[in-house]
Every structure is written in structure tokens, then in C-alpha cells.
UniProtKB/TrEMBL annotation:
<dbReference type="InterPro" id="IPR000924">
    <property type="entry name" value="Glu/Gln-tRNA-synth"/>
</dbReference>
<keyword id="KW-0547">Nucleotide-binding</keyword>
<dbReference type="InterPro" id="IPR001412">
    <property type="entry name" value="aa-tRNA-synth_I_CS"/>
</dbReference>
<dbReference type="InterPro" id="IPR004514">
    <property type="entry name" value="Gln-tRNA-synth"/>
</dbReference>
<keyword id="KW-0067">ATP-binding</keyword>
<keyword id="KW-0963">Cytoplasm</keyword>
<dbReference type="InterPro" id="IPR020059">
    <property type="entry name" value="Glu/Gln-tRNA-synth_Ib_codon-bd"/>
</dbReference>
<dbReference type="Pfam" id="PF03950">
    <property type="entry name" value="tRNA-synt_1c_C"/>
</dbReference>
<dbReference type="InterPro" id="IPR011035">
    <property type="entry name" value="Ribosomal_bL25/Gln-tRNA_synth"/>
</dbReference>
<dbReference type="InterPro" id="IPR020056">
    <property type="entry name" value="Rbsml_bL25/Gln-tRNA_synth_N"/>
</dbReference>
<feature type="binding site">
    <location>
        <position position="209"/>
    </location>
    <ligand>
        <name>L-glutamine</name>
    </ligand>
</feature>
<dbReference type="Pfam" id="PF20974">
    <property type="entry name" value="tRNA-synt_1c_C2"/>
</dbReference>
<keyword id="KW-0030">Aminoacyl-tRNA synthetase</keyword>
<dbReference type="GO" id="GO:0004819">
    <property type="term" value="F:glutamine-tRNA ligase activity"/>
</dbReference>
<feature type="domain" description="Glutamyl/glutaminyl-tRNA synthetase class Ib catalytic">
    <location>
        <begin position="25"/>
        <end position="334"/>
    </location>
</feature>
<dbReference type="InterPro" id="IPR049437">
    <property type="entry name" value="tRNA-synt_1c_C2"/>
</dbReference>
<feature type="binding site">
    <location>
        <begin position="266"/>
        <end position="268"/>
    </location>
    <ligand>
        <name>ATP</name>
    </ligand>
</feature>
Length: 549
């Protein structure tokens, strides 16, 4: 990979290293909540955190922010580990915020003892009403002045399960008049009787995200806590908590802009909705911007890492064109994918002057610019299949492919001439009768030019296959701006072609093998549905798009 370009975070870290801050250490973390599959936005954060650590001989932890048990599951935990690995990264330490529940509880007790937290009996609704607005200060809860001893007793009993869900919360005592609403006595703990995928029923109180996150960072000795811009307003709270409790270190929170990608959605909540309401076929549907979906569609880890580097890092939210991601995968596949032939809409071609029963094993190179990728055998015989629209009965001007009485070259094979069109009773073309020029294998015909080259397969040797052509999942660039993003799902996001034929060499394709189907697009074998000899290929991306122009 190329030398990384500088950005404001790399700059901050370079300066910290120069000043020997944190004893010259760089320790980052990637902290997903296991409430869904990772998406391309997470990839940006993964590449950033793991990348920064690797560039500076540092470390990067994977930490599950598992403080919301009702939405979290082990399936998500496992998928996240798999996806981080697949992207090419290895964490130094694996942690769960739930591992710190006991310590978090002790720190909360400390806060109460210092008079910096109190148990509040206001309802969630009342707390919201008391909180005030941007222009109006909040109102103090009557429980704010509860004596320390009473707070300690109540908090203990909250943990012991003596109260109903929602009956009490533990709040930080900061400033109800703060211009920053996050500082108006934010909740630190709530009572919630939910089974946790790791701690089971050990706890009926769970710590809030803002309280948990900063302490978890500090306990792990994180030096730079990189997060997205919406946490900028939470930074004073991050710092407040760490200033009050006595953690060994005080990490520095730095915010960067989220990735927003056109024609898709990067919000786990909305992606979850697409899955549960069956607008797509699961989290790994190739139309999904999830890592699992991109993998199944045929994206390479390298293309995604390249994309994350290319889009750069700023403090300004902006939309990235889908074309940038497509450019990255095309660049990788153009260089590395093996070439093969697949006919999407077959038209039968009988070569009258070719001997019945004969097969020629033609050698065709796997990559025109890379001889080191070798050659494969492509069988040629009397009956072949070509693409229906590579023949025109009434050709438009400049049509260079096959016409009646005209010639075309078969890729890697001979020049053929079309002599006759065969139609059924309804007037549909069912077959072409052609002849081949035996003198044209690997050389130009004598005395005439043949411009067109088309792909083909031998009927008898080819394999039936299903090809799935994916298009953008949404029909507008910014589905998030719609009142309901479900209204702008692209009804044509998937086209399934079931009568395709692929060349013989693909019979033994392996899951996630990637190909350029000549003239058609980049495809990979579907890892899930391609079973028992039934070949299914997913289109990763078309051969060309407008972004490059
Ligand atoms: P979502 O809204 O999709 O649930 P999230 O931020 O709540 O996203 P987390 O699991 O908490 O999801 O995210 C883990 C890390 O990934 C966080 O540090 C978060 O900032 C980062 N992240 C999430 N989405 C993006 C994005 N679109 N661009 C960059 N980083 C992101
Ligand atoms: Mg989050
Ligand atoms: Mg979220």
C-alpha cells in the first residue's frame, strides 16, 4: 500500500510523539456496540484506529461497548471479530465494556462519596422536561440535594434489585445551567432487568454509554480516543468524568467526520430495519453497505482499505460518491481478477463447417497484462453460445458485432461468419447458422479486417449459472434526507439472470473467487447460495462508470 497522506489526526499524533506525550506511546481502540453488523462507515474508523497504531508501533484494542443488552447479541460480536480480521487487522487486546462493570460501579460509588452523583427518583419524562433547552437552563431535581449517605444506600439497593426498572437513576451532579445540555446532570446508571449476553443476570443496573466509554478508554491506557463528530459535545463530559474518578490515565478524545456514502445508508438501526423487514436478504446481502455484504459481493479487503485512505479524514461532514468506492474495487480487480467468459442471455450458434463431435482445447490467458497469472483451457466445439445482443438482425449504425453476412472474432478463438438466421413460429431468433475460418486462430484473416470481438462459450462444455446483477439500493443520493428512507429503495436493485452459461473452467470456482467476465463486469462466486454444483455469481461492479471520466 502507498505511503499514507497526512491528516489532522496524524498531525496531532506526530506532535504528541515529538513532545514525548504518553511516554511516546500510541494506543487506540475500535469500540463497536455489538448491536448490528459492521458497515463501511465502521471500516473508516477501523482503518483509522488500527492504521494509526500500526504506523506508530502502537497498539489497537477491539472493545465491545456492550452496555445496551436488549439490542446486543453474540451473533453480532462474532460477526464484528470476523469482519475486522477480514479487513486485515489484528487487535492487541480484546475487551468488553462489561468486563469493567464492577470497576465502573466502584467509580460510581466514589463519585457519590465525593458528592458528585445522586440517586434521582424523577421519571424519564420528568428528567427530559427538567433538562431545559438550548436557550433555557434546566431545572434542578428535588433529589439533587439528597444526602450522600442516602445516595450510597439507594445506589446499593438499586444494584441489589430492590427497585423497579425506571424507579431511580444515578445522575452526575454537574451543572443544570450549563450551556452544554450533556452537562446538565447526565444519567450514569439506570435500572434495567435485561439478560446480558456476557454477564447474564448478574446486573439489573447498567452504566450509560458516556460514563462507560471514557472510563473503559482510561482503564486500557488508550492515548488517543478517536470518535465521530457527534461526540464533540460530549467531550466535556468525557473529561469531567475522568477528572473526578481516579483512573490511571486520561485519554484525549479527538473527533472526525463520519463517512456518509451516497445511495446508501450507514446507520445500524436503519440497516437492521432493512433486514428485519426483509427489504434485503440479510445483513450480508450484497446490496448492503455492511462489510459482510461487500465481502459477499466480491469486494476485496484491500479495496476497502484503499477507499478509507482515499476519502481522507476531516472535521467536516460531507457525502462521498459511491463512484469512489467502485473505483477502488475496479482498480484492484482490473489488476488481479482472472478473466473468464460468461454468456448472460445465450443465443445458439451452430458452426456448419466445423466437424461434428470434435472439441478443441484452446489455451486462453487468464489476464491480458499479466502472463504470470497463467492460462486456462477453453473448449471450442460445433455449437457455441453467444450473447443475444451481440447479434443484430437490423444493426444500428457502427454496430461492430455479428450481423447476417458479417464476421466477428470469438475471443481467444476463430473468426466466424453468420450465414443464416433461424426463427421460431413467433418470429423469435432461436439460432444462427455460421461458418468459421480455420485459418484465423490467433491471427488476422487474409485480405480483410474483422473489428468486433465477442465472448462465447461452448454449449456442450459450459456450465449453467445464475448471475445476480446488483444495483444501488436506493434511488436517491441521500436517502437519509427523506422523510422515510424506505420510500426511496430502488425497486431495481437486484436483477437475477437464471439462464446464463459460464465457461467450463468455472465449474470448480471457489467461494469468493473473483473474475472479470469479459465485456460484462466483475463477478465473484456467491459464498452462500452456490452449492451442490449450482453456480451463482454476484456482480461486484460493472466494468466502467462515469466517475473515472
Ligand atoms: P451506527 O449509528 O451505525 O449504530 P455507531 O457510531 O453507533 O453507528 P458503533 O458501533 O458505536 O456504531 O461504532 C463503533 C465506532 O465506529 C465508533 O467509534 C464510531 O464513531 C465509528 N463509526 C460508526 N459509524 C461511522 C461512520 N459512518 N463513519 C466513521 N466512523 C463511524
Ligand atoms: Mg455508538
Ligand atoms: Mg448506534
Amino acid at each position: 500500500d502507498n505511503q499514507p497522506t497526512s491528516n489532522f489526526i496524524r498531525q496531532i499524533i506526530a506532535n504528541d510523539l515529538k513532545d514525548n506525550k504518553n511516554n511516546g506511546k500510541v494506543i487506540t481502540r475500535f469500540p463497536p456496540e455489538p448491536n448490528g453488523y459492521l458497515h463501511i462507515g465502521h471500516a473508516k474508523s477501523i482503518c483509522l484506529n488500527f492504521g494509526i497504531a500500526a504506523e506508530n508501533n502502537g497498539r489497537c484494542n477491539l472493545r465491545f461497548d456492550d452496555t445496551n443488552p436488549e439490542k446486543e447479541s453474540d451473533e453480532y460480536v462474532e460477526s464484528i471479530k470476523r469482519d475486522v480480521h477480514w479487513l486485515g487487522f489484528e487487535w492487541s487486546e480484546l475487551h468488553h465494556a462489561s468486563d469493567y462493570f464492577e470497576q465502573l460501579y466502584d467509580y460510581a460509588v466514589q463519585l457519590i462519596e465525593q458528592g458528585l452523583a445522586y440517586v434521582d427518583s424523577l421519571s424519564a419524562e420528568q428528567i427530559r422536561a427538567y433538562r431545559g433547552t438550548l436557550t433555557e437552563p434546566g431545572k434542578e431535581s428535588p433529589d439533587r440535594s439528597r444526602p450522600i449517605a442516602e445516595n450510597l444506600d439507594l445506589f446499593k439497593r438499586m444494584r441489589a434489585g430492590e427497585f423497579a426498572d425506571g424507579q431511580y437513576v444515578l445522575r452526575a451532579k454537574i451543572d443544570m445551567a450549563s450551556p452544554n445540555i450533556n452537562m446538565r446532570d447526565p444519567a450514569l446508571y439506570r435500572i434495567r432487568r435485561v439478560h446480558h449476553q456476557r454477564t447474564g443476570d448478574d446486573w439489573c443496573i447498567y452504566p450509560m454509554y458516556d460514563y462507560t466509554h471514557c472510563i473503559s478508554d482510561a482503564l486500557e491506557g488508550i492515548t488517543h480516543s478517536l470518535c465521530t463528530l457527534e461526540f464533540e459535545d460530549h467531550r466535556p463530559l468525557y473529561d469531567w468524568v475522568l477528572d473526578q474518578v481516579k483512573t490511571p490515565t486520561h485519554p484525549q478524545q479527538i473527533e472526525f467526520a463520519r463517512l456518509q456514502l451516497e445511495y446508501t445508508i450507514v446507520s445500524k438501526r436503519k440497516l437492521n430495519q432493512l433486514v428485519t423487514e426483509k427489504h434485503v436478504n440479510g445483513w450480508d446481502d450484497p446490496r448492503m453497505p455492511t462489510i459482510a455484504g461487500l465481502r459477499r459481493a466480491g469486494f476485496t479487503p484491500k479495496s476497502i482499505r484503499d477507499f478509507c485512505e482515499r476519502i481522507g479524514l476531516t472535521k467536516q461532514n460531507s457525502w462521498i460518491e459511491m463512484g469512489v468506492l467502485e473505483y477502488c474495487i475496479r482498480e484492484d480487480l482490473n489488476e488481479n481478477a482472472l478473466r473468464a467468459m460468461a454468456v448472460l442471455q445465450p443465443l445458439r450458434v451452430v458452426i456448419d463447417n466445423y466437424p461434428e463431435g470434435q472439441t478443441e482445447q484452446l489455451e486462453v490467458s487468464n489476464h491480458p497484462q499479466k502472463p504470470e497469472l497463467g492460462k486456462r483451457i477453453v473448449p471450442f466445439s460445433k455449437v457455441i453460445l453467444i450473447e443475444r445482443d451481440d447479434f443484430a438482425e437490423n444493426p444500428p449504425p457502427k454496430f461492430k458485432r455479428l450481423v447476417e453476412g458479417g464476421e466477428v472474432r470469438l475471443r481467444g478463438s476463430y473468426v466466424i461468419r453468420c450465414n443464416e438466421i433461424i426463427k421460431d413460429a413467433g418470429g423469435n431468433i432461436t439460432e444462427l447458422r455460421c461458418s468459421y475460418d480455420p485459418d484465423t486462430l490467433g491471427k488476422n484473416p487474409e485480405g480483410r479486417k474483422v473489428k468486433g470481438v465477442i465472448h462465447w462459450v461452448s454449449e456442450q462444455h459450459s456450465q449453467p449459472a445464475e448471475l445476480r446483477l446488483y444495483n444501488r439500493l436506493f434511488s436517491v443520493p441521500n436517502p437519509d434526507n427523506e422523510e422515510n428512507f424506505l420510500d426511496v429503495i430502488n425497486p431495481d436493485s437486484l436483477e437475477v439472470l437464471t439462464n446464463c452459461r459460464v465457461e467450463a473452467s468455472l465449474a470448480h470456482a471457489q467461494a469468493e473467487n473473483r473474475y472479470q467476465f469479459e465485456r460484462t463486469g466483475y463477478f465473484c462466486l456467491d459464498a452462500i447460495d452456490s452449492v451442490n454444483g449450482k453456480l451463482v455469481f454476484n456482480r461486484t461492479v460493472t466494468l466502467r462508470d462515469s466517475w473515472e471520466k
